[in-house]
Amino acid sequence: MAIRLTTYEHAKDIPELPGTNVFHSTDLFRILEQTPGYRPVLLVAFEGDKPIGKLLCITRRNFRLLGFTEKTYVYGVGEYFNTERKREEIFNELLTYFTTLYKEGSFLLEFRNLEEPLFGYRYFRQNGYFPVRWLRVRNSIHHEQLDKWMSASRKRQIARGLKNGASIEIASSLEDIRAFFMMLKKYYSPKVHRYLPDFHLFAFFSEESFPAGMGKIFIVRYKEKIIGGSVCLFSDDTAYLMFSAGMRKSYPLLYPGVLAVWEAMTYAREHGYSHFEFIEAGLPFKKFSYRDFILRFGGKQLSTRRWFKVRWNWLNRLLIRIYV
Questions:
Q1: What is the pLDDT of residues 56-65, one digit of tens each?
Q2: Do both 112 and 257 map to the same domain?
């Protein structure tokens, strides 16, 4: 039986689907759909009337020197279920359709955070993508001692920060989330060089309709002022750190950035998650201060790759010659 693909552009049209991967979930689709600057599309593969795979595609509008451009990306390579077909066979259908759908409208297509670096290699190449080596940083948090592999200096910073009066909690009110967002916007984006979503995305964490097990915002306070925080999403047995920041220069003896990550790790451990992953570890051949910061929490560097395709054919061919 042939694989049939269906495209969903609105959350209200998506049927109930199996799956546990938050990065391909209807819940994440619904949040992105209501966040300015994002346009999600869910591709679903069917075998007859039975869903066997899904791929959440996220288009983001960027402003660059040449004007507004669009970038479409996917976390991982989709989610698959209810079939004896090989995952790569279904992925090939989804990838080919994804490429056809976006290659003209988006300047850059990207597949990031691949769990299996070699998954779908030949299908990416057949569709004109080029691979770039990337790094993941992943902590095992199921040991008896959460800080087993953590550096001694990092342990001292956590102890000093708490002793000097910093407190950590889960953000629940919209006011706290707004204060955290303003701090994040000021201290995070210029340092980590990553796009920061609109406030609407963070505001969803305070709504009653927000799925309890999907994610949390952790905040660090000192004398009622929010001086640090982090954002986590949870999927299967892993907690993913999406954003984190702290007012390190203003409060050097409180280590707010360190405490924000530590609280997220502690929460994940206490709620049964086995791994903690930092979602952005950067290129392996580029010095990256944020990667140095997160490695001191005791995680391991894992080599992976990201796949890219550029709209300009001449540039894409040049990059293929460089990276393949």
A1: 999 998 765 4
A2: no
**Alpha carbons 78 and 42: distance in angstroms, whole number:** 10
Residue 60 lies in a domain: yes
CA distance 248 to 66: 34
Q: Which pLDDT belongs to residue 253?
A: 95
The distance from CA 108 to its chain's CA centroid, rounded to whole angstroms, is: 18
Model confidence, pTM: 0.92
User: Is the domain of 154 the same as that of 223?
Assistant: yes
Calculate mean pLDDT across residues 6-18.
Answer: 97
Residue 191: pLDDT above 70? no
* Residue 307 covered by a domain: no
Cα–Cα distance, 296 to 157 (Å, whole number): 11
CB-count burial class (<10 Å; 0-12, 13-18, 19+) for 211? middle
Total number of domains in the chain: 2
The burial class, CB within 10 Å (0-12 / 13-18 / 19+), for 102 is buried
